[in-house]
Amino acid sequence: MKFLDLHQPHSELSKEINRAIKKVFKKSDFVLGQEVKLFEEEFARYCNTKYAVGVSSGTDALLLALKSLNIGIGDEVIVPAFTFIATALAVSYTGAKPVFIDVDEESYCLDAERLEKTITKRTKAVIPVHLYGQIADMHKILAVAQRYNLKVIEDAAQAHGATHIYRGLSKKSGSMGDIGCFSFYPTKNLGACGDAGAVVTSCKKIYSQLLILRDCGRVSRYEHAVMGYNARLDTIQAAILRVKLRRLDSWNQIRRKKAALYNKLLAEVRGIILPTQKQDVGHVYHLYVIRTRHREKLCRLLSKHKIPFFIHYPIPLHLQKAYRNLGYKQGDFPVAEKLAREIISLPLHPYLSDRDIETVAEVIKSA
Q1: 112-126, 136-150, 270-284, 331-345: lowest mean pLDDT where?
Q2: What pLDDT score was predicted for residue 162?
Q3: CA-CA distance, 121 to 241, in Å (whole number)?
Q4: CB contact at 8 A, 98 and 123
Q5: Is residue 269 within 8 Å of residue 263, measured between CB atoms?
Q6: 134 close to 283: Cβ distance less than 8 angstroms
Q7: Percentage of the chain lying above the pLDDT 90 cut
Q8: Would you say residue 230 has pLDDT above 90?
Q9: Based on the domain organization, do 238 and 286 belong to the same domain?
Q10: Domain endpoint, select from 245, 272, 302
Q11: Is residue 177 part of a domain?
Q12: What is the extent of the structural domain holding 120?
């Protein structure tokens, strides 16, 4: 049993992927080539945004998004305390200060009820993270942001294709805020064969800034308007992503079915908490995460039966040594700290067999 199978999708799509790569080699436009432009057009359509800009990673997507909004030294950006550190690092790279906020105990996403109290005169933006494949409460987040004139950058690195009913319409992750940021790290629901990312927006001004920022601040071959970055999406990765994008919705649907089977088999098990799906959200289950106060015992049992698992994430951001200088302490964000003690990610991917899920469930029941 594998926690995640990266071999099978590439094996199934090998002919299409090889054909796409050969096309790039024939054209030899390895940097910002035709496949990058085509992928950007297709991904923007998929996300229901006007524009997409391919970049070198999800972290760079966040960094360029912040820079396109002129966020920097002296500014503050609100970030959930429970997520992968890249969200906060991107803020720090600009010279701005990440200000942490606790998360909602059901969705594990930024707690929108606490947002207004976290805003200061220096706050310029908020980055809701759509954690594990579920979209944060964008109704409340966007309402508060509008009231305080804040920019909203959606971190959708774990939520490709997730949906949210917003103002009566089904919206894709990344399309509701000012900017949406995606990672195509190989483990994602839509993964490249290496590092890659994208930024989506419907604002032409932001789009124009992103194009310049990702290419060394270039406005012509040797003319640089700003101090930009070398953060371009490789043409080969774009070609691979175009092939896989066509499978994303079907893969997400399979993930939902696998998660539903886990939910059914584990529904009566005492001592664990299953993932919650909000009523107006289309979860894409990048990860299937359960909670238990007896995590160490369960981890030992899973290891004994050779069942792979991960803990996403064992240390909340405010307690990371990297952010010791911000002065946060144990107890500042109790929900984030509780989740860090209790969560376990179980195997979930489109090629996981129902029998494997039943095996995992039987082991958990035995605990």
Answers
A1: 270-284
A2: 98
A3: 41
A4: no
A5: no
A6: yes
A7: 98
A8: yes
A9: no
A10: 245
A11: yes
A12: 7-245
Same domain, 152 and 280: no
Residue appearing with tokens 């089977």: 261
Tell me the residue type at 179. Answer: I
CA–CA distance, 221 with 164 (Å, rounded to integer):
41
This prediction has a pTM of 0.97
Same domain? 43 vs 132: yes
Output the CA torsion sign for 26, 29, 33, 39.
positive
- Say yes or no: 153 and 292 in one domain: no
Asked if residue 1 belongs to a domain, the reply is no
Residues 265 and 222 in one domain: no
| 260 and 214 within one domain | no
> Residue 313 has what DSSP assignment?
-
Residue by residue, DSSP assigns 124-147 as EEE--B-GGG----HHHHHHHHHH
3-state percent breakdown (helix, strand, coil) of the chain, nearest 5:
40, 20, 40
CA 96, CA 71: separation in Å to the nearest integer?
Answer: 7
Joined together, the tokens standing for residue 54 give 């391919």
| 20-64 per-position pLDDT tens digit | 999 999 999 999 999 999 999 999 999 999 999 999 999 999 999
Could you count the other beta carbons within 10 Å of the beta carbon of residue 310?
Answer: 15
